[in-house]
Amino acid sequence: MKLLLIGFGTVGQGLAELLLEKKEALAKQYNFKYTVVGINDMLKGSIYDAKGIDLAKALKTVKSDKKLTGGPEKALEMIKKAKADVMLEATYTDIKTGEPATSHIKEALKKGMHVITTNKGPLALNYKTLSNIARKNKAKFLYEGTVMSGSPLINLIRETLAGSEIKEIKGILNGTTNYILTRMEEGLSYEEALKKAQELGYAEAVPDADVLGWDALAKVTILANSVFGAELKPFDNPCEGITKITADDIKKAKANGKRFKLIGHIWKEGKKVKASVSPQQVELTHPLAGVMGATNALTIATDTVKEVTIVGPGAGRRETGYSMLNDLLHLNACKK
Ligand code: HSE
Question: How far apart are CA 116 and CA 327, in angstroms?
Answer without folding.
Answer: 7
